[in-house]
Amino acid sequence: MALRMIWDDRYLTGVDRLDREHQALFEYYNRLIEACATSSEEAAAGVALLERYAETHFEHEEAVMVDSRYPYYLHHKMDHESFLVELHRLKSALSAGENVLDDLCRFLKNWLASHIAIRDAAIANHLHDLSVAAD
Q1: What residues contact 25, with CB distance under 8 A and at least 6 apart?
Q2: How far are the Cα atoms of 123, 131, 133 from residue 127, in angstroms, in the given order?
Q3: Would you state the pLDDT for residue 134?
Q4: Main-chain dihedrals φ then ψ at residue 111, nearest 5 degrees
Q5: Quick one: which of 8, 12, 13, 51 could link to 124 by a disulfide (CB 3.0–4.6 Å)?
Q6: Within 13 A of 93's CA, how many CA atoms are on the CB side?
Q7: 96 Cβ partners below 8 Å, 6+ apart?
Q8: Could you please report the per-residue DSSP string of 75-87?
Q9: Rounded Cα–Cα distance for residues 46 and 48 (Å)
Q10: Are 13 and 124 in contact (CB under 8 A)?
Q11: What letter would DSSP give residue 10?
């Protein structure tokens, strides 16, 4: 069974809305872990919820990047798109009855933790630099 994700300060970006949404992604992941122990139908429903929430979050995050003229916006957007493609692939495999729950949980946990701590932290640094330059 996959381990739950624990939110801590290393994931904070300093952008309240994004931080709240990142915390919610952790919660959706943790609910998915619980659903996986119940049934494949529950797991599929959990993946669908996480996928929809991630899509909405990515739209919000990408708007912040565009508004702030984040120089690595296209690369970051491609990361989001690659995530959604892989999540869809794993969701389809799960729906087809393949035993991919471990792969799915590993992918989600690794991607969310590293993406937020590294890629999203870079957005936070960019926004901080903008606010310092404005002072």
Answers
A1: 50, 53, 54, 57, 112, 116
A2: 6, 6, 10
A3: 64
A4: -65, -50
A5: 13
A6: 13
A7: none
A8: HHHHHHHHHHHHH
A9: 5
A10: yes
A11: G
Consecutive sets of 10 residues in the chain, 135 residues long: mean pLDDT of each? 86 92 96 86 91 97 96 97 97 90 93 96 92 67
Residues 6+ apart with CB under 8 A from 12: 19, 124
pLDDT (0 to 100) of residue 135: 55
CA dihedral 52, 57, 59, 65 (to 10 degrees): -160
Domain ranges of the chain: 13-134
Work out the widest C-alpha separation in the chain, in whole angstroms: 56
**8 Cα distance to chain centroid:** 15
Record the tokens describing residue 128, joined without a space.
């901080």
Measure the CA–CA gap between 133 and 28, rounded to whole angstroms: 36
pLDDT at 115 (0 to 100): 96
* 44: number of Cβ within 10 Å: 16
